[in-house]
Amino acid sequence: MLPRLENEVHPQxxxxxxxxxKLVFKRVVHSIKKQCAFTSWxxxxxxxxxxxxxxxxxxxxxxxxxxxxxxxxxxxxxxEDFAGESxxxxxxxxxxxxxxxxxxxxxxxxxxxxxYARVSTDTSPDTLYQLLTEQWKLPPPNLLISVTGGAxxxxxxxxxxxxxxxxxxxVAQTTGAWxxxxxxxxxxxxxxxxxxxxHGLSRSTQGQIVAIGVATWGIIHNRExxxxxxxCFPAHYEMDIKGQGRLSCLDNNHTHFLLVDDGTHGxxxxxxxxxxxxxxxxxRKHLGNKEGCMTIPAVCVVLDGGPGTLHTIYNAMLNGTPCxxxxxxxxxxxxxxxxxxxxxxRVTIALIHQLMKKFFGKEYDNFPHVKIIEWTKKxxxxxxxxxxxxxxxxxxxxxxxxDVAILQALLKASRNSETLGMESWKRQLELAITWNRxxxxxxxxxxxxxxxxxxxxxWAMFSALVGNKPQFVSLLLENGVSLRDFLQDEDTLCxxxxxxxxxxFLRKLAKRVHRSCGSRRKALRIRPQAHLDHGEMxxxxxxxxxxxxxxxxFTHALYPPPIVTYSMELSTSISLSKSLTVSQEPLEEDHAxxxxxAGGDLFLWAVVQNxxxxxxxxxxxxxxxxxxxxxxxxxxxxxxxxxxxxxxAEDMQELANHFENHAIGVFSQCHNSDEERARKLLVRVSxxxxxxxxxxxxxxxxDKSFVAQSGVQALLTQIWCGELSVDNPVWRVLVCIxxxxxxxxxxxxxxxxxxxxxxxxxxxxxxTVETVTGSTLRTNSRxxxxxxxxxxxxxxxxxxxxxxxxxxxxxxxxxxxxxxxFLFLFAVxxxxxxxxxxxxxxMLLYIWLLSLVCEEVRQLFYDPDGFGFHKKARMYISxxxxxxxxxxxxxxxxxxxxxLTTELFYxxxxxxxxxxxxxxxxxxxxFTISKTLGPKIIIVRRMMKDMFFFMFxxxxxxxxxxxxxxxxxxDNDNRLDWIFRGAIYEPYLIIFGNFPTxxxxxxxxxxxxxxxxSDPLKPKCPVLNENQTPAxxxxxxxxxxxxxxxxANILLLNLLIAxxxxxxxxxxxxxxxxxxxxxxxxxxxxxxxxAAPPPFIIFSHFYFFIRNVVLCRPPIISKEFKRExxxxxxxxxxxxxxxxxxxxxxxxxxxxxQSMERRILDTAQKVTTINDRLDREEETSSPAVxxxxxxxxxxxxxxxxxxxxxxxxxxxxxxxAKEAQPQMLTTSDESSDMLTNAxxxxxxxxxxARQLYYPDSKLTRFPVPEEKVxxxxxxxxxxxxxxxxxxxxxxxxxxxxxxxxxxxNPGGRTGIRGRGALIRLxxxxxxxxxxxxxxxxxxSVLEHLVVWDERHGTLALPGGLLQSADQLPVTLKxxxxxxxxxxxxxxxxxxxxVFEGYVDDCRNTDNAWVEITVLNIHLDTTSQLTxxxxxxxxxxxxxxxxxxxxxxxxxxxxxRDSLRQVAELHNRKF
Length: 1470
Known about the structure:
Layout: H1 16-45, E1 47-51, E2 93-97, E3 101-106, E4 113-120, H2 125-135, E5 143-149, H3 158-175, E6 177-181, H4 187-202, E7 210-216, E8 232-237, E9 256-261, H5 272-283, E10 298-303, H6 307-318, E11 323-326, H7 331-339, H8 349-360, H9 369-384, E12 389-392, H10 402-415, H11 422-435, H12 438-445, H13 458-466, H14 470-478, H15 483-486, H16 490-498, H17 504-524, H18 540-551, H19 574-590, H20 598-608, H21 612-619, H22 625-642, H23 646-673, H24 675-683, H25 694-700, H26 704-707, H27 710-721, H28 730-738, H29 751-773, H30 777-781, H31 783-789, H32 797-805, H33 808-831, H34 840-861, H35 869-878, H36 880-899, H37 905-922, H38 933-969, H39 976-991, H40 1034-1088, H41 1097-1110, H42 1127-1153, H43 1156-1178, H44 1183-1211, H45 1228-1243, E13 1281-1284, H46 1296-1299, E14 1312-1316, E15 1322-1335, E16 1341-1349, E17 1354-1356, E18 1359-1361, H47 1372-1376, H48 1378-1386, E19 1392-1399, E20 1408-1418, H49 1424-1434, E21 1440-1444, H50 1453-1465
Parallel strand pairs: 3-8, 4-9, 5-6, 5-10, 6-7, 7-9, 10-11, 11-12, 13-14, 15-20
Antiparallel strand pairs: 1-2, 3-4, 15-16, 15-18, 16-17, 16-21, 19-20
């Protein structure tokens, strides 16, 4: 909605308004174009069904299609094409372009909107999928949830409803699933809609829930509002529940609707077939639009439901779709839940009758007995396919919400597929990662059954990292992923950077890549192209350059540049390519030994994308964790400064502070454990982070809190004192500076003396322990340390003197004395000895200033950290004291230039006097080292900023009062100096109590002013009357003065005091931290400063100039701030740091677990768990309890029988009992397991022969439940259909109908008569040939020969129909050739019959069945037959293959059983 425009025209907005209108116009035009394109595509691809033949139905004006006569087109009233025909929806309903599509808007609260389309039943599912993903812009799903069940309203218990709503939304959110329902406002669809509505109200997490309603167009109430030939954008749909009658309203909580039309009105169930095809189409799409073996998984969720729902479940499970049935939801769902845990032998027709009557109520009376038989058969088949069935029971503790049950069902189905072993686990893990359900991966996948290697999980690690799933990253690392192996190949890390999400680092990296490729083209004179070629890809060199830019130029490259040769199409460029390669070789050698830290690489990748969770995980794996945390702080703060998005910059700043706190925590642990090692960590060179130090990184990142730590300050204090002990009082140092011989008397302590004394005490302690305990173990363990310490000798006299005066502390004191002397000399020259010809004292002052200038130049060019001149200059200028130094020097030079000229001599003196003020202000820098005054200087600097801005506010009042006063009192005074005095100077002095006398008649003195203003020493008199008295209104001037004083002197000055107070209170807490941070620069300055103070320092400058510039010798590098450690010491220090990091993380976790928030959350979780258990206990009539009571009752009966048998035995007095001892059931679990195992053995036979759908036909068998399979059992309702395929001939003599009675399936009833798809009645004998050989390798492997079955697209054992008992199947000639067939056929007698008999085949009927002979012929490795077979396999191009005999072989169930028997025959594990 556009904002209302105001009537007023603002001049500043006149330029903005056309721009806004233009933007709005572009958006409207774009929306119209988008709608037109969608309308055009829909009319071209989406159709509806329309009746084209009107035939009277129950009423005169109503057609058999259900629509009235007026709803038909004129051509359909009296069609000539269909004369004499009866109405058929397949023939008399044709497709026309749809007229109902667009956006749908539901009235009421919230104004819910969605998208809809009226589609034909014959619409291709691929077209519908294209409509959903490309036109409606839905992201492809990671999971398809088909919710089915009762179409009428039904009652759900509050707890089950809550769990269903919560679980369905959770699984849809976490996995990115599509939910497909019937779309109407009734039954299970209504419950799904309410779950989506609850999500919309809470919005606890981001992401839209996609709920697609596939409904029948002909049963939609108020569908007329959806019809428009050009589409509705939007269509306003009204839900009229009370007036819908037999029709149904659409559910207003669904997001998308596919309204299926078959040309009829009022008929339910039209959408079922198209919905099934659409779900099958979606489930065949590749997961994540990636080419691979993984397709989009689908699951069916069942609530309530009737016979139609049972049919849906049955077909879904046959198609391999797992089903989740909610126990307690009612009707068929409860029937299946009741029998799911029972053995098949107990699932009888009578039991189904009983359960149907219990859960269906009055509906049961309308069910015919034949239908009950059919449903019993379907329920038995459903139970048999247990890998596809999951029962969600609210009464069991091991179930969470519905989301867990749904995902567990999918994993269980994946686990029980034919693909066994690691491939199955890999598929389950890929699903869990796609769904982002680490809880399922932890409980269902990473179990003791699955054995994972690190290399097997690299793909999962990459997927979890790119998909931003930190919990999975942690889980994979816990379960064996080696980060070093994962990132061993630099291409993997490079690929991770290519997959970075959009952000500031990726944008900067893309610019760098573009610049580098542009410069390369320019260097090689390549014409630029419109698109980037393969060479313009991100490389680790680009990443290294960008990270170095973020860290600072003082660091080295993190990743060595690769050897790159620029290949070109022109042959003449080969020499240029080679020269480029050679020129890069020296650079390669510098970085050849650059170490790699896999944890640091991953940490850097996570930091640059501002990903806190992944960075936290990777930081725990870093070897150099403190340097990594400080480097991350620097990188993030730099990116926050360079970024444009304020919110993103704030997040980066927050994450930078987080890692600074990590560095503080680790260093605190280190310092508390070992101070000496902790100091080494601060100044050691980190080879993993650009060869810089922790201290330098902290300073560059402006991490004041880190630098302010006591451990860091202790290091700085130690450097400040040099070789002097930090325990020396200041007064002793000052005394020794003047009387240096005192250093030889022990008056001043040196650090070397402290170390020697400390180690001597340790040695005495060791000797004491050895004397007391009599053990030398401790002495031997420290022998190496002591041997190194014995080399430490006391300092000589000369070195004591050198260390005294080279200490930064002593240098500082000498410079203070020197600066005092300089100021004293400056003051003397300015006040006493400033002659026309410079005196000796003034010449000394010039020499002194020259030494100060040389020192400032030395500081500017001194760069031990390798910052470069530009950054060093920026750092120099950013310091206030350096600015004062430069200003004072420039003023002095300018004053000196003026002083040496006669005309400007006095002006030069004035400039030098002003310069003296600047030098005195510069003297305040000496207080920065003071712990008391240093922080106060910071407060003063902050208050000066406040006062500067306050002066703007004060100047308004001063100028306002001064100008008004001057205009009232003085008439036309043209002297600028006196105008400034009256308008500015006098009002300013009034604030400080200097009140004017010319505004009051009583205080006015005519002699104090000039009447005409001609006297330059007197102000002009006010306007006078004729009697020489002031003419100005006294009351006005006094009133103005009072008001001015009220605001300026009382209000504004008190405001300034309040501002100062606020600044003081605000800065006071941080001044100590800021002072400690700025203290480093002062210490480093005096550490690098020559020992001699000015002006004697100039001799040191001459020495450095000759040494470094003239002799070109390298500068002396100090190890106080940067130290390179030996390899062994480096490894030991990093290991110790890792130990301290673990202690820090442990203490952090303990602190979080003991925090009040954590305790509240734990208490809330416990209360929720107790509440759930209480609710479960209240459901005393739950089916689980009833089932357990039934088992208990059965066990009591068995116990009674056992007791009776014991009594009878005792009565017989030693004789055998007449009745056999019944088997006792010890526990209910054991009984159920035994019954289940027994049922599995019994129902494994004659199952495929009774499946309802006969293969390669549209026939359905008569349902035969388990109990009615044997011919001996009476089955009066049994009426199987007759079927004989025309594709195969009949080899039975005489009429087939008479011959049927002569053949009866030995396995029992199958539900169909005739020969079916088999070629003859009775047994159809086939043979499978198992050719085996021993493959010589490291281990002896038994292999078998398989052929490629082109008809089914699978591997199979060679075989076919037998013509005679002593001959192989003739069909083998085609695959093996005639010659080889005859050779193998000649060896049939040498083969071993593995199996011979009846086979449970899906083609079996009551009168025809398959019998098979499995023959194993083992080939000797040295025989000619083996050579011939191997040659044939090699030349078959995959049609024949040797495969290992193992359970991983993909064969049919029967052939796998045969292969298992062959393995047992050869004593091989299957």
